[in-house]
Design goal:
Largest sheet of chain B: 6 strands, mixed
Distance between the termini of chain B: 41 Å
Strand content of chain B: over 45%
Helix content of chain B: under 10%
Largest sheet of chain A: 7 strands, mixed
Oligomer: heterodimer
Shape of chain A: globular
Order of helices and strands of chain B: EEEEEEEEEEEE
Mean pLDDT of chain B: 92
Shape of chain B: globular
Number of helices of chain B: 0
Number of helices of chain A: 0
Structural class of chain B: mainly beta
Order of helices and strands of chain A: EEEEEEEEEEE
Amino acid sequence: EPEVTQTPSHQVTQMGQEVILRCVPISNHLYFYWYRQILGQKVEFLVSFYNNEISEKSEIFDDQFSVERPDGSNFTLKIRSTKLEDSAMYFCASGRGELSYEQYFGPGTRLTVT
Amino acid sequence: GNSVTQMEGPVTLSEEAFLTINCTYTATGYPSLFWYVQYPGEGLQLLLKATKADDKGSNKGFEATYRKETTSFHLEKGSVQVSDSAVYFCALKVASGNTPLVFGKGTRLSVIA
């Protein structure tokens, strides 16, 4: 069964450094998402992406964040200058389209900012 | 706005006990409703869903019925197992294009033998 994959599984970085989190969505999906989960808290929406542009973003997704689909398979989340409070589990998700509301989640990347 | 409220955890049950995790929602529009499960050290997995009123989603012995009149989607299982220990998230998605899932805070379930 196809699945969403994410790399790396764990990333440790120093405050102020740039990080890129990578995701490979399910191949016939058209909608892509990033969510994050700070330890012990709820899952929060960051951004959605469709047709090579951002569809919607939350207030968390400020100028330090960007997303890209550099080729036909990868979907990346970049944090330009990481802060301690960016430490969280970041989940990528993908979905088929408007009539199918399911989103399929990857296993997550744990980002630790020191 | 759209929001999901779940019962606070943690919930600790003995094996074979009956499980209910309450979930209520507020939504502008007609949402689809979901339960996701997160096993220790893993990502989110879709457990079940319901897309219209009175629909019952079911999977792996878990059930939830979409109740529009009470804006609820409570998760139930008749007999829990140790392997059901996980965090359970109720979520909604308003059916209007590429909108995100809105999650509740999650309920941690521990099942002891």
